[in-house]
Design a protein that fits this description.
This protein is mainly β. It has one domain. It is built from no helices and eight strands. It has strands at residues 2-3, 12-15, 18-23, 26-34, 37-48, 52-58, 63-69, 72-83. It has a four-stranded antiparallel sheet with strand order 1-8-5-2, with no helix packed on it. The protein starts with a strand and ends with a strand.
Length: 84
Amino acid sequence: MVDYLEGKKGDKISIEEVNLISDGDKIKVGKPLLGNAKVSVTIKDQIRADKVIAFKMKAKKRYRRKIGHRQPLTVLHTEKIEIK
């Protein structure tokens, strides 16, 4: 699951900004990104995370605010990791 990405369920996306690749014992780390790596993914679902409650209160002042927030998320399935 990642932060919301544009697209519909079933769309295929290519991610060019890769920070780290691990292949068994071999680990490649970018500084800050790996320029020769690409990940192909498929969008499985667009969901919303559990609700997070923000509650503000000032004692003895009759001040209370309750706000809820649900973060939109994208569920991805990794198809292929390419290293050039």
